[in-house]
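Protein modeling request. Please complete all fields; requests missing the sequence field cannot be processed.
Requester role: graduate student
Desired output: 3D structure, C-alpha cell encoding
Chains: 1
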Amino acid sequence: MQTYPKSRLLDIYKSCFQDYMGAEHLVSDRQRVKAYLDEELQTTSLDDLMPWNYEPCGIDSNYYRVSIRTIKESVISEDLLLDAFIRSANSCRRPSVDEWNERWHKMIGTIDGMQLNLPQYYKDRQFIDSVLSVGKYAISHSPEYREAYRPHYRIVERSIFEQEILPLIEQKKKPDVMQQIFIKLQ
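Delivered output (186 residues):
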C-alpha cells in the first residue's frame, strides 16, 4: 500500500494470485502474444511506465513482474522477455483453484485484521468470491490502479528471472569501463 496507495482489494488479490499461480493462462499462440507485446511497446512511452525494471509479485516472490521498460531501454531484448514469459506461463503445474481459494481466504483474514480502509472493499471482496465460486481466479487490475500506475509488464517465474533477466539488468546498472575512467578523472 505504500508503493501503490491507490490500490484496491482487487489489486492486492491480483498481485498475490500472480505470485501463487503465475501467468493467468497457458500460452499456446506465440504470435498472438508477440503481437500484443508489440502493440503495447508501440503505444507506450517511457513516461507512461513505472520507474522500476522489475518487482516481485505477492508475498513469496515466486514470480516477478518485468516491466516492458527493460525492452524500451535496451536492457533486454523483446524476444528474451517474450520467451521468459511464455516458458513461465507454461512451465509449472498450476495449483487448483480450490488450493488458491483456501490460501486467499487465509490472506483475506490478515488483510481484514490490518484495517486498510480500502476503497470499495466489500464490493471487491464479493466480486473476488464470485469469480472463485465459478472455478476461476484471474481478474484485472482496478481502473484506479491502471490509471494511476499504468502497469505494463510480463510475469516471469523466479528462477528464469534470476538466471536470465536479472543479470542483464544488473549489468546495465554498472557503468562501463570508459565511464568509470571518466568519473575517476573528474
